[in-house]
Amino acid sequence: MGIHVEVESQSGCFRAYEAPAVGRARAGTILLLHDWFGLNDRMRAHAEHLAAHGFHALSLDLYRGMVALSTDSARGLAGELKLDYALGVVEAAARYARAQPNSTGKVGLVGFCLGGAIAMAAGSCIEDISATVTFCGLAPARYTDDARLKTPVMGHYAARDPLLPIQQPQAAFAALSAAGRRALFHPYEAGYAFMRVDSQTYHPGWAELAWKRTVGMFQEELH
Q1: Residue pLDDT, tens place only, 36-51
Q2: List of residues 6+ apart from 75 with CB closer than 8 A
Q3: CA–CA gap between residue 175 and residue 179 (Å, rounded)
């Protein structure tokens, strides 16, 4: 089981849930960036899931201790989050991870919806990120330019997402692939938040496949 830790950044301390790698003396680290509900039990469970696959997992709190209990409160918290602050948290978390005695020095990012967009932005702004995975999140175009986004990237997107038409991420990933980047685009015949177990659009089959692909990506890039 993991523990909550406090990590220092230029904007002050932030909280994270740290789950140590199972069965490995040294491991690559995966930083998890939550959706608009915040660092809740689901995000802690995701960290434990990745730790069970041999990664050092760190689920970050971008909301300074706040957790949304409804869609309305989630929308409010997401609207107040500043991208510069979130990127500072990711950068500080990466430094913290590399300083741990069991770290291989390799760090990957995985984000969900809001966190997925931030993960892609971080992958273009923060040095020495080894891989980025996004679930239903797409950063603004200035962060997905092939001249900036240098990490291998995998994207999982719902074909029936009313918030993000599938053509947008499809085009972004196609442009990255055409530029020679490793950009793996995976569409699913599902609705928004198909990975979230408490969502009406949760699809266990697609969720299992997406996790399998994600773990495979990190095994290639972080071990």
Answers
A1: 999 999 999 999 999 9
A2: 36
A3: 6
| Residue found by looking up tokens 């993991």 in the block | 2
Tokens of 122: 């971080």
What is the per-residue pLDDT across 71-95, written as a single tens digit (0 to 9) for each?
A: 999 999 999 999 999 999 999 999 9
